[in-house]
C-alpha cells in the first residue's frame, strides 16, 4: 500500500514578514517620491501661470483694452518684486500715465487690474535684468508694434528673468521676458 502524504501549502511566518517588509518599503518610497514630485509640479504650474499672465497683459495692450474708460497711454504691464514683504505676488496693471512705473491706482480689480497671489510654498526668489540682480522690475507692453519695455529703479534693460522657488524642496523655475516680447519658462 502506498501512503499518500498530504502536502500542506501556505507561507511560513518568515516569508510573510519578509513580504510585508518589502511591500512597506516600496510603499514608503513611492509616497516620498509622490509628494516630492507634487511640489515640483507646483513650481512648474506657477511658472506657467505667470507666463500666461504676462501674455494676458501683452494681449490687453495689443487689443487696446481700456482701463477706467481709456486705453492706457503706456499700455499694460506687470510689476514684480523680490522684496520679502511682497515676494509672494505680482501685479497686472494699466500704465495710465506712460511713466513705465507702477502706481496703486493703476491696478484696481474693478477696472481690469489684477493682483496674483502665489501658492503658499512658492515665492519670487530673485529678479535679474540683463544679468544684474534687482529688487523690482516693471515690464510693460505698448501697442501697436508691440514694444516691450523692461524698467527697474536704476534704468532699463533688454531681458528680465524672474526666478520662482518652491520652499520645501528648493526646486526652482525661471520666467524670462525679453525686449521682443518673448515670454518663456527656462530651466
Report what the structure shows.
There is one protein chain. The protein is of the alpha+beta class and 187 residues long. It has a single domain (30-186), classed as minor pseudopilin epsh domain (minor pseudopilin epsh fold, 3-Layer(bab) Sandwich). Helix content is 27%, strand content 33%. The protein has one helix at residues 13-62; strands at residues 76-81, 89-94, 114-117, 122-129, 132-134, 136-142, 147-152, 155-157, 159-166, 172-178, 183-186. The strands form 2 sheets. Strands 3-2-1-6-7-8 form a 6-stranded antiparallel beta sheet, covered by helices on one side. It has a 5-stranded antiparallel beta sheet with strand order 5-4-9-10-11, covered by helices on one side. A hairpin with a 4-residue loop joins strand 10 and strand 11 (183-186). The longest helix has 50 residues, at 13-62. The chain crosses the membrane at residues 12-32.
Amino acid at each position: 500500500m502506498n501512503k499518500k502524504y498530504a502536502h500542506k501549502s501556505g507561507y511560513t511566518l518568515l516569508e510573510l514578514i519578509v513580504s510585508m517588509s518589502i511591500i512597506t518599503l516600496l510603499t514608503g518610497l513611492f509616497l516620498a517620491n509622490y509628494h516630492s514630485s507634487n511640489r515640483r509640479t507646483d513650481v512648474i504650474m506657477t511658472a506657467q501661470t505667470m507666463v500666461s499672465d504676462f501674455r494676458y497683459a501683452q494681449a490687453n495692450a495689443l487689443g487696446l483694452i481700456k482701463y477706467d474708460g481709456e486705453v492706457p497711454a503706456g499700455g499694460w504691464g506687470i510689476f514684480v518684486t523680490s522684496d520679502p514683504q511682497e515676494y509672494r505676488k505680482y501685479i497686472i496693471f494699466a500704465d495710465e500715465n506712460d511713466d513705465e512705473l507702477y502706481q496703486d491706482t493703476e491696478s484696481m480689480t474693478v477696472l481690469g487690474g489684477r493682483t496674483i497671489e502665489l501658492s503658499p510654498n512658492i515665492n519670487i526668489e530673485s529678479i535679474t535684468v540683463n544679468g544684474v540682480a534687482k529688487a523690482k522690475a516693471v515690464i510693460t507692453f505698448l501697442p501697436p508694434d508691440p514694444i516691450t519695455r523692461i524698467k527697474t529703479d536704476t534704468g532699463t534693460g533688454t531681458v528680465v528673468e524672474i526666478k520662482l522657488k518652491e520652499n520645501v524642496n528648493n526646486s526652482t523655475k525661471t520666467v524670462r521676458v525679453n525686449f521682443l516680447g518673448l515670454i518663456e519658462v527656462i530651466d
